[in-house]
């Protein structure tokens, strides 16, 4: 985690605050190396998604980008819920296989 801001903090010496110490407070934001890694991972996932068969990619996009439940996807695509579940599992397995060596 990267350094965010510095604070002056009083130090208790014998019951009185006499000294001020500069303390670095950790930032909640990712630093440049973390942002680069996150971008690289996102690129690899999007690349792998583009290699999925259309039916599988559509299900993943509806579930993870549109936030639809499997029941909502089944209704939206007018297909049985079992088919949605099977194709979603298949799509996730294909993604895992494609990304296995890439994200290790």
Number of domains: 2
CATH homologous superfamily annotation of the largest domain: Winged helix-like DNA-binding domain superfamily/Winged helix DNA-binding domain
Task: Going across the biggest sheet, name each strand in turn.
Answer: 1-2
Q: Any idea what the CATH architecture of the largest domain is?
A: Orthogonal Bundle
Rounded average pLDDT: 80
Kindly describe this structure:
It is a single chain. It is built from four helices and two strands. The chain has 104 residues and is of the alpha+beta class. It folds into two domains: 1-30, no CATH class; 32-99, Arc Repressor Mutant, subunit A, CATH 1.10.10.10. The protein has a two-stranded antiparallel ribbon with strand order 1-2. A hairpin with a 2-residue loop joins strand 1 and strand 2 (16-26). The two termini are 21 Å apart.
């Amino acid at each position: 985690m990267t350094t965010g801001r510095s604070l002056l903090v009083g130090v208790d010496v014998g019951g009185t605050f006499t000294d001020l110490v500069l303390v670095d407070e950790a930032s909640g934001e990712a630093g440049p190396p973390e942002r680069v890694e996150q971008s690289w991972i996102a690129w690899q996932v999007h690349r792998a998604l583009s290699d999925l068969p259309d039916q599988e990619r559509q299900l993943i996009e509806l579930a993870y980008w549109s936030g639809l439940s499997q029941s909502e996807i089944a209704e939206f695509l007018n297909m049985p819920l079992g088919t949605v579940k099977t194709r979603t599992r298949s799509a996730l397995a294909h993604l895992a296989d494609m990304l296995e060596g890439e994200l290790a």
